[in-house]
Each structure stands twice: as C-alpha cells, then as structure tokens.
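Box 3.1 A note on notation
Throughout this textbook, protein chains are presented in two layers. The first layer is the amino acid sequence; the second is a token string describing backbone geometry. Keep the layers aligned when reading.
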Amino acid sequence: MRKGMYRKPKPIYMLKTKIIAASFFLCLATYKVNAQEAAVKEKLNISGTMGITYEGYGLTRNPSGWTGYNARRPWNQVRFNFSPNFKFGKDFSLPFNFNFAAIPTNFAGPYAGIKKQNFGQFITNPMNSFGINPKYKWAELQLGTQYLKYSELSTGDIGVFGVGFDLRPKTFLFKFFTGISQQGINYLAGPPTVTGAYKRRNWMAQIGTEKEGSYLFAFNIAKGKDVPSSSAPPPLTIRPQEGVVLSLVSDLYLEKGFYFKAEGAQSTFTKDLATPLTPLLKSLKPFIEARTSTLTDYAAQAAVGKKSQNFDIGVMVKYLGAGFQTIGYPFLQNDQLDYTLNTRFNAWKKK
C-alpha cells in the first residue's frame, strides 16, 4: 500500500455457485441415396451432428440480500444444436448450423431475466447461431450468423448475423459480408444493473490471391458503426462509436516446412459519434469522416519459422499502437509490443 493511502476494510460476504451441465449428442449417419444400383453415381449425401445440452446454475449469497454479486446466467438453460450437411454430387453442398438457447440472455451485463424476444432479436442474439452456407464449386453464399476471420488485425473472429459471399475462382479471392454483430440493449438501473449496448452494423471485404499451401496476399477492409438511437435509455458509460481498419496480409510457405507471415494495418476509430466533425484530423473518406474524438494508429505483426512432422520452431513479433483498435476484438489490449517463441517436438519420432 502506498504511503498516505488508507484502504477501508470490506465486509466479508459468502457466495457459492453451482453449475451442472449435461449434454446429449447424436451423430447423423452418412446416408448415400442412389437413383438405381451401384452403377449410378451418388446423388445425395447427408452428414452432421445434432444434440441437446442442459446447464443448471445455482447462486447462494450470505447475507441473502447482498447485491454485490448478481446471477450471471439463468437458473436453468437448455441449448439445441442441429448441424446437418447436405451434399449433392461432388460440386454442391448445403451445410446448416443451428445452435440456440431456449431461455434468452444478453451479453451486456448480469443476467436480467429477459422474458420476451421478437423474432429478429432471437436470431441475431450473439448467444444463438443460425447459419446456412450453400456452396457450388468455388462460390459460397453466406447467410445468417458467420464467424469470419479475414485476418488477425482486421476482422478478428467476431460473430456477425447478415449476408455475404466467398468467391475463389482459380487463385483469386473475393469476399464480402455485412450484418449486425450486436443488437441494441437498453440501460437498466436494476437491480441487477444492465450496462446496455448500442446496435452495431458491420461491413467487411477482402480481395487478393491465394494458392493453398504456397502463398496468400490480400487487402482487407473492415468497418463497424453503432446506431445511436438503438438504445432507450442509452448506456451511461458507453458512447456510440465508429471505426475502420485497413490491412495488408501476406503469407508465404516454402519448401521443407519454412514459412513467413506478415500483416500491417491502420485503424481510424471515433470514440464518440456525438462529437463534431473536424478538418484538423485526417479523414478516411468515403469510409469515415474525422471527428474531434477520432484516433488513427497502426499495428503490425510478422512471424517466421519451420514446421516438420516431429519438430516446430517459430518466432512472432506483434506491435499495436496506443490508439489502434480492431472491429473484431472490441476488448483488444493495445499499446503493446510482444515477442513470442513457439516450439513443439515429439518425444518419439513418428514413422
């Protein structure tokens, strides 16, 4: 404790949580439907999984009226998973990913006992996932909840509910997706207190060239923007924000397991959309206009190493500027310089 500082003793409270989880999964057997006998080509193949998960949660507080710790989830929760994949011939597939909870919850604070959701809130709730990805040869349509990671410093892997595509003709890459990553949640004084959140709309795109196992070179852009009118009353400690990230990513895979990976990125992020526009700061038109709360900063990372059957070694360096932010990792710790050494070896050689 620093000199001159006095820390008031805190009363001792007792709490006990109890979590019970059970799951039941079924694997869908692979069915092969032939039009006639074995001489006829396979027409339909169905595979996938489905399951039910139960979670029981308990919280005991002493004294019982203590409000310093609130329930984090419903007392009872049931989740359903249904993920079949329909494959028609060798060129067309239709995978589904339905994973949803029976009791609604939110991601903006302690469990608030939400009673009703409309259909739009249900399918876009980050706790649920409804995705369909029809694919024909090199063209894929992406519908519903998707966890897309164009690169580490641009999109991250945040879940977004929307629509997009992934096109890979020959060695070219053309990707685009737009949707909602967070619904608006009203502030609630409680108890329990719900912090609230603004609805956030997302856009992301990638263009580049790739040959699997050889190289990747691509340009990425990701944008997120909050809707100020989406929460009433609005959050007290959060301001509506807007941000854009541009990045270049390059991967190179050489003979004998050697590889090199690098990415450089620039973020332009507005901390408060209520602040006025200013010509004194550099804008990134047409994607974003600078306001008095706008910050622009940079980030970069590079990795080099070697992978083999029995031994891996590599080193990675990552730099994040003090004002750098990504769209995909809202809680990213910036203002850092990291050095990482990665190794792996097998005690017994594989033959």
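The chain has one helix and 16 strands. Residues 13-103 form one domain.
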